[in-house]
Design a protein that fits this description.
By secondary structure, this protein is mainly beta. It is built from 1 helix and 32 strands. The radius of gyration is 29 Å and the shape is flat.
Length: 439
């Protein structure tokens, strides 16, 4: 006998409908959340823009939530929140400052100095004057910006390669420049509490335009002929004024500023030899190949101080951690193969590493011996030093310094004592020839 199938009750139909709607809503929410994490607009959302005196806020309103992109002088950022969360509305901040133009440009800067009579002078490669800048936040204390550093100070961490003076930033397309126009302060750069103000300036004869404002800037590449630093392909490492995190920007010839790395890093450093960026985010360090947009190292918990390639085209990284043992303060360095994190050098109390294409030399504070090893791990040479300390001052010597270097040898100046007597007489040269080490 034929039996008619049971029909769904109205309650069951409602439950199924609600379940389908919930699944569809969940899928849409996940898609939109992923788009938000990539700073992309939401789909199936109502787009509006709210204008303020100091910028605007874009909103993408979807089913129960909203994505906001703040582009205001008083606040810059993004948020993905339920629809009932109110829009952030801080007090408007004024636009970027106006550069004074009520001055005469002295014509007696015959040495083409960067700064003359309180003005900054900008010259092209032919030493033709292209513009000047008058200080905004002080009478005469502004300067062309120099490349700074973060709390890890990686660029000056190694006593052998530390800069005696930070590099000045050069012109960009002979149209733009970075200016350090910080407020006068009792503290010096690098001291806790010092506040730096960096302007990106569109160069003009007088009264040019401020394009952007940053809390700091770093070195990337350095031109020894011009004695100026610049960005890698006009990409510059700068610190946000809003959250004081580091990011990477690209400055186009028309003055447009493109964000390459978002402002969310505790440290960004550029390695000019390998063209890689060393990044730190949430206390995790890694190496990034921007040309191919990919991470090329494993994550490391300790700061990465250097990355290099040996003669066999294998990449290595040098990490380290600051330590205090008794009265001795030093950085305990370690070396790893970059691609897989395999240990190459992990010995107690290594306080100096010299990395070259066919060898690594390391100094330990345990025995004051400088060990030379090739990349198979075989020790090729060892040199007894008088003491192990590398950090030095006007009254103390380092254990050694590099005097000369060629493709086949390296000459070290070995200091006889820690205390300075006569630096010209305090050390003896020792030449290590490594021409036959790999034969």
């Amino acid at each position: 006998m034929y039996q008619e199938p049971n029909k769904l009750s109205s309650k069951k139909k409602i439950e199924i409908t609600v379940l389908i709607i919930a699944i569809l809503w969940g899928l849409l929410f996940i898609v939109n959340y992923l788009r938000y994490t990539d700073s992309k607009p939401l789909i199936l959302a109502l787009h509006t823009t709210k204008e303020y005196e100091d910028g605007n806020v874009e909103e993408y309103i979807s089913f129960g939530y909203v994505y906001r992109r703040y582009s205001r002088n008083s606040y810059r950022g993004e948020e993905f929140v339920p629809f009932w969360v109110k829009r952030k509305n801080p007090e408007p901040q004024p636009d970027l400052p106006t550069v004074p133009d009520d001055y005469e440009v002295p014509e007696d800067n015959y040495g083409h100095d960067d700064k003359h009579r309180g003005l900054l002078y900008y010259y092209d490669s032919h030493f033709d004057l292209i513009g000047t800048y008058k200080c905004i936040n002080s009478e005469r204390d502004c300067n062309k910006a120099f490349g700074g550093y973060d709390k890890y100070n990686i660029i000056n961490k190694d006593p052998l390669t530390a800069l005696e003076k930070q590099h000045t930033m050069g012109n960009i397309y002979d149209k733009y420049a970075f200016v350090d126009d910080s407020e006068p302060q009792d503290k010096a750069y690098g001291q806790e509490g010092y506040v730096r103000t960096i302007y990106l300036y569109e160069i003009a004869e007088k009264g040019g335009k401020i394009l952007a404002k940053y809390a700091d800037i770093k070195d990337s590449t350095y031109d020894p002929d011009l004695e100026k630093s610049n960005g890698d392909n006009n990409q510059f490492i700068v610190k946000s004024m809003d959250n004081h995190k580091w990011g990477l920007i690209h400055i186009k010839e028309n003055g447009e500023i493109e964000e390459v790395f978002p402002f969310e890093y505790e440290s960004i450093n550029y390695d000019e030899d390998t063209k890689y960026y060393i990044l730190c985010k949430n206390d995790v360090w890694y190496v990034y190949d921007l040309n191919h947009n990919k991470k090329v190292s494993v994550d490391m918990p300790d700061p990465i101080y250097d990355v290099w390639r040996n003669n066999n085209l294998t990449y290595y990284i040098k990490t380290g951690r600051d330590r205090v043992v008794g009265e001795e303060e030093f950085t305990d360095y370690k070396v790893y193969r970059m691609e897989d994190g395999r240990e190459f050098l992990n010995i107690e109390r290594v306080n100096q590493v010299i990395e070259r294409g066919n060898f690594v030399a390391y100094l330990t504070s345990k025995d004051s011996i400088l060990h030379f090893v090739d990349y198979s791990g075989e020790e090729k040479y060892k040199l007894q030093l008088k003491f192990p300390q590398m950090y030095h001052s006007t009254i103390t010597n380092p254990a050694f310094k590099i005097s000369r270097e060629s493709e086949t040898s390296i000459t070290l100046c070995i200091y006889k004592q820690r205390d300075v007597v006569d630096r010209s007489e305090d050390c003896e040269n020792e030449t290590i020839n490594y021409k036959t080490w790999n034969q």
